[in-house]
Please model this.
Amino acid sequence: MEILLFLVGLVFIVGGAEALVRGASGFAADLRTSPLVIGLTVVAFGTSTPELAVSVYSALSNHADISVGNVVGSNIFNILFILGLSALIVPIVVSQQLVRIDVPLMIGLSVLVLILSLDENLSRTDGLMLIVGLVVYIWFLIYQSRRESVEIRNEYAREFGTERYAKNRWVKNIGLVFVGLALLVLGSRWLVDSAVSLAQYLGVSELIVGLTIVAAGTSLPEVATSVVAAIRGEYDIAVGNVVGSNIFNIMGVLGFSSIIVPNGVEISISLMVFDIPVMIVVAFACLPIFFTGGVISRQEGALLLGYYVAYTLYLVLAASHHDALPRFSAIMLYFVIPLTVITVIIIALREIRSKKKVLK
Model:
């Protein structure tokens, strides 16, 4: 019964996010907003509404581990799984200049989360600071969109153009927004309640469920958006959706969740010493994109996917206190990770040298 409730809640959340994005995009199009701005704000943030709904409900229900674990797990899932899968299907060429700003911002915000978590609490002040940062970021995106190239504008216009909304009436857009919000509220309640029961049944912590099952489930809209965009050759959308969603998860989801809870959201020690640092490392993993000619190859995609499998396996072994955990951790710590770092450094140095030769 709990699994059925979880699945129904997940369907409601994904459907609600789709309805909300369509309705909000319709409003934005009616206001003659640039398709680029619609893609970078309404759609990128709209695909994160499942995380927002689940984290807010979890925070209000005193399930802080699910609330924060959902955000951290989703950010890890977005980069390792979604970007990895997209690149494995079709090598992704990243040409959008704005990503050069967004990725460092995503890294900085990930580090900021760790700093704010040192007192094991995200207070209302912390949340307010994150929300203000989100407002500034949205304003910057709107300003930056006016400077984008014609190619990038056309790319976003094909995906989020105003033509398909031309015949839509404002009543329909309002209906979609309200239906989407209703589905998100109801779906998040069922999803969180069933996830808590599932954690109790499996004998694992709510944090593990939040980092894995809930995080992956609420990231399904990002999976669909980025994979389809990659197949269509709309690479800026594929990458921009992931990076934009991660930024919104930190500033919007964590920020709002911290504000609505009187005493803020508690951060568990295990999140602070392991999962949040993993989120930071994963964010840094995006940097090699710019050192390899702006291309995420199939090999790099497979590497990202492999690391997500390894991360999930570690969580499962840790939750079950399996005897293989020490050996698995040693292999990852002393062999796999150092080898990956060395490989990335070599690739980066080669790319820098090649660019210097071209300049000469």
Summary: Strands lie at 92-93, 121-122, 265-266, 295-296.
